Amino acid sequence: MAAVLIAASAMYAVGGIYAKRFSGFPPLIIAAAIMLSGAVVALPLALIVDQPWLLPMPSLKAIVAVVLIGVFGSALAAITYFRVFTVSGATNAMLVTLLLPKGIIGTFNAWYEPWKAKRMSANATSAAREDGVSEPNPAE
Fold first, then answer.
1. What is the chain's mean pLDDT, rounded?
2. Residue 115 has what pLDDT?
């Protein structure tokens, strides 16, 4: 597993160096080329490995979720990355790839922690009601 993580980290550096070749192209074109290249590589592998024609049809909700993740999670991220790359250079673009996961995790925690606390409080209150324990009266 450590070798995979080291290889992935090395690919960030190689990607930054390789991306310099495309600095003359608009970010939208580069991002579209990368997304299409990834699809061309992934589609045959997915068809061979997963054999989707043997699986049940996913729900509309699942299909919409995958499309939204593809558009917002991959396509817009690639456009943004190459925009930063063309405007600020390779060094700043590499910083974005290193700092972005921390920002996402921080944002998720900021959203999830209050929700989790409310959810746990609601579960505790409902469990107490089921056990016949009444809630304390603030007036007492």
1. 76
2. 59
Q: Considering the entire predicted model, what is its pTM?
A: 0.58
Q: What is the DSSP letter of 95?
A: H
Is it the case that residue 40 has pLDDT exceeding 90?
yes
Q: What's the pLDDT score for residue 13?
A: 75
Tell me whether residue 31 is exposed, middle or buried, using C-beta atoms within 10 angstroms of its C-beta: 0 to 12, 13 to 18, 19 or more. Answer: buried
Contact 28, 79 (CB under 8 A): yes
Cβ atoms 75, 31 nearer than 8 A: yes
pLDDT (0 to 100) of residue 77: 81
Burial per residue of 15-25, b for 16 or more beta-carbon CB atoms within 10 angstroms, e otherwise: ebeebeebeee
Q: Where are the domains of the chain?
A: 10-101
Contact 135, 128 (CB under 8 A): yes
Count of H-run helices and E-run strands, the chain: 5, 0
Question: Using an 8 Å Cβ cutoff, are 81 and 96 in contact?
Answer: yes
Q: Which residue has the tokens 């690639």?
A: 78
**Local structure of residue 135 (DSSP, 8 states):** P
Q: What is the DSSP string of 113-130?
A: HHHHHHHHHHHHHHHHHH
